[in-house]
Amino acid sequence: MGVLSTKHFIKLEGAPKEDIQHLIDTGLMFKEVLDRPIKKVPSLTGKNVVNLFFENSTRTRMSFELAEKRLSADVTNFSASSSSLNKGESFKDTIQNIHAMKMDCVVMRHPVPGSCLQLTKYVDAIVINAGDGKHEHPTQAMLDMMSLYEKFGYLKGLKVAIIGDISHSRVALSNIHGLITMGAEVTLCGPPHLIPIGIKELGVSVSHDVDEVVEWADVLNILRIQRERMGVGLIPSVREYRDFFGITQERLNRHKKEIVIMHPGPMNRGVEIDSSVADGDQAIILDQVLNGVAVRMSILYSLLGPEEEGKDEKK
């Protein structure tokens, strides 16, 4: 049993501050491992991990696989096209296969919100959520928070603006839960119809004036416009979105301030963010990528590794 307050890592909603800080601190430790000539430790030797991806993914899947191999776990990859999920039978079959393979941990991405929580009811293995529909993407939020903690040395009181399509973003929701728990101030900014109704109840502010938000913020976390999730017509045009909400070099130059630029990827360059901004000195986007491996090593180790001395057994 690991050292966190729960057996699984499904969401950041309700996650204790102590768990989040432990994962950040352990992630920073593992980042030092990634800087060594030999980037591998035997921490999870003999543990079996399956990556179960029902949605296409490049960065998240590669990051998890690299993290697992850096910890010396045995890794099995499984992919399924979204069309096979229509009747739900393949999900049941998959559960039976996991039981048969005696896996210690399942890392799952699935298009249906709540699917990872459902999986915990059917398997004995530890379940880690790699993104479930529009619900949460907790490991992305953890790497974002680790990147900010590494940059600033604190999260409490940090002014973080999340800009873009909040309604369709599981990254935004996980970041909101995590950052508010850690004491950061969060403002959401985007077109009114892409901001969920009632979102202020989570403790965030909402603005539709991106220049006002840039002037306020220490950090801009810029979200991708997810046209594949939206359907047609939610933004009038790419050009109009860029004019009103795009983070351009010209817009940043007007404010004449130091500000940290983040993006969970993949980026629509020239839409929500300009290349000159994404590749500029204020961006920590590539740091986020490396920290993604380190913090996922932290999560895997904290759930699957040897229990720390003095810790009570977790539920």
Describe the structure.
The chain is an alpha/beta fold and 315 residues long. The chain folds into 2 domains: 17-137 and 292-304, Rossmann fold; 138-289, Rossmann fold, CATH 3.40.50.1370. Helices cover 40% and strands 14% of the residues. The protein has 12 helices and 9 strands. It has helices spanning 17-34, 59-70, 89-101, 115-120, 138-152, 170-181, 210-216, 227-230, 238-245, 249-255, 275-278, 285-304; strands at residues 48-53, 74-79, 105-110, 126-132, 159-163, 185-189, 205-207, 219-222, 260-262. A 5-stranded parallel sheet has the order 7-6-5-8-9, with helices on both faces. A 4-stranded parallel sheet has the order 2-1-3-4. It starts with 16 loop residues before the first helix and ends in an 11-residue tail after the last helix.
User: Helical percent range?
Assistant: 40-55%
Residue stretches low in confidence (pLDDT < 50, at least 5 long) are: 308-315
Mean pLDDT: 90
If helices are DSSP runs of H or I spanning 4 or more residues, what is the number of helices? 12
Number of domains: 2
Please tell me the CATH architecture of the largest domain by its name. Answer: 3-Layer(aba) Sandwich
- What is the makeup of the main sheet? 5 strands, parallel
Helix/strand structural class: alpha/beta
Rg, please?
19 Å
Which series of helices and strands comes N to C? HEHEHEHEHEHEEHEHHHEHH
Per CATH, the superfamily of the largest domain is: Aspartate/ornithine carbamoyltransferase
Can you tell me the CATH topology of the largest domain? Rossmann fold
Q: Please indicate the percent range of residues in DSSP E strands (runs of 2 or more).
A: 5-15%
Bulk shape: globular
What's the CATH C level of the largest domain?
Alpha Beta
What's the total count of β strands? 9
> What strand line-up does the widest sheet have?
7-6-5-8-9
Distance between the termini: 9 Å
